[in-house]
Design goal:
The chain has 423 residues and is an alpha/beta fold. Helix content is 40%, strand content 19%.
Length: 423
């Protein structure tokens, strides 16, 4: 018998190996699960620049939300589980760069947007958001100049500078007979200027004369010259419209100079980790506002409840308590995903889906760790979450800690008036 040549034998062996490998690969592919689908959320945020320190507060809120989502294996919409991908786009704390960040996010085909820390960066982003008609849900900005733009696509989870400062009226009215003059200083950004406008109206309504009204640069590092000027006027009230960094500077400058008004008012930031860490020990009697308290155990579609949120937060950020901005950012993300579930909208989302989201956000009320969220269509409060009105409280530093002094239903202690000496 004639022997088979080695080339033919080698070819046959090679074919057999290929067939075996193909069968094995087919079995492997049958066993391998299909790649998980992705919900891509673009986050426009001040990660660098003057407002980076505050942007990190928002990032903590969004990040802890994403951490819990990952622990749950993703989010399920219409029976399909999606991995969530948070994509951060840095604005460098610049409104113009915020517009560019939105352009980049849209080019990257994100499904939806979460908004920045500041009102100025939000305002900078609005023209581009309107251009692409993509919804942006903003968990932090508070300027009333945002709803004045009447954007169909931008939604504010926190109350604005038009609504929240009214909580101070109850406190000031109580001591009206002992308060005749006020000094008002404000940072140059949109939020601070909006807040300054609200303070002016508040003082006017109460018959309190403003003896100084000045704006300072947002990147200021020393408020001593301005506080020294104020101290010579001896106003009964000092109102600071700014961010946590500015409140810290104002407290330190006032203490160093020895200026101690009957009332010193801040607003956002008195409950921030930065403020509490740096000056709570000396800022006895300083007043501020909060739009959330962890004392109410709201339910949440992602975290489960406020108590569960706090547990994960303290494990993730030991030694740092969440302020209302961080809580609002986390709650805003929960709202967005629950809205997608309610509408059964599965990624990738297109303009048709965005239009459905916009319409539904104007009518859908969802409970979150922040409390209920529903965005108003009242032209005076356009796309603002007015559900928070009952939650606004006046707080004061007492004994180095933050306590609620108004309204009566939430009060933990009587207000210290006049403001005690600096510690």
């Amino acid at each position: 018998m004639k022997a088979i040549s080695s080339p033919r034998l080698a070819l046959g062996a090679a074919v057999a190996i290929i067939i075996v490998l193909a069968v094995i690969a087919g079995i492997f592919n049958l066993q391998r699960p299909a790649p998980q689908q992705v919900l891509r959320i673009g986050v426009i945020m001040e990660l660098t620049g003057d407002l980076a320190r505050d942007g990190i507060v928002c990032k903590r809120g969004y990040d802890i939300w994403n951490k819990v989502v990952e622990q749950k294996g993703g989010v399920t919409i219409g029976g399909v589980t999606f991995k969530v991908e948070l994509r951060y786009y840095d604005t460098a704390s610049d409104p113009g760069r915020a517009a560019t960040a939105v352009e980049k996010a849209v080019a990257d085909k994100v499904d939806i947007l979460l908004g920045p820390y500041s009102s100025s960066n939000t305002l900078g982003a609005i023209p581009v958001i309107n251009k692409y008609e993509i919804p942006m849900f903003a968990g932090s900005p508070e300027s009333h100049r945002i709803p004045e733009q009447k954007s169909p696509w931008v939604f504010q989870t926190l109350l604005t500078t038009k609504e929240s400062p009214l909580a101070f009226e109850v406190v000031l009215e109580k001591f009206k007979g002992q308060l005749s003059t006020a000094a008002l200083i404000a940072a140059s950004d949109a939020f601070s200027q909006g807040l300054a406008e609200a303070y002016r109206n508040l003082f006017k309504d109460l018959g309190i004369k403003i003896v100084l009204d000045e704006t300072f640069p947002g990147d200021i590092t020393d408020l001593k010259p301005l506080i020294s000027k104020i101290s010579t006027l001896k106003p009964d009230v000092l109102a600071v419209a700014g961010h946590p960094t500015h409140h810290i500077l104002a407290v330190k400058a006032s203490k160093d100079i020895g200026f101690n008004p009957k009332i010193m008012m801040a607003h956002y930031g008195i409950d921030s980790p930065e403020f509490l860490k740096e000056v709570a020990g000396i800022a006895e009697g300083v007043l501020g506002l909060i739009q959330w308290t962890p004392a109410i155990n709201w339910k949440d579609p992602i975290f489960g409840s406020v108590n569960e949120f706090l547990k994960v937060w303290r494990e993730t950020y030991p030694g740092i308590d969440p302020d209302y901005t961080a809580a609002s950012c986390a709650a805003t993300a929960s709202y967005v995903v629950e809205l997608l579930r309610t509408l059964n909208l599965k990624p990738p989302l297109d303009k048709s889906a965005w239009d459905k989201i916009r319409t539904a956000a104007e009518t859908t009320r969802i409970e979150t760790i922040l409390g209920p969220i529903k965005y108003s269509t009242d032209p005076a409060h356009w796309h603002v979450n007015m559900e928070l009105i009952p939650n606004v409280s006046v707080v004061q530093i007492q004994g180095g800690k933050l306590v609620t002094v108004s309204p009566e239903a939430a009060k933990q202690a009587e207000i210290l008036f006049p403001k005690p000496p600096w510690r």
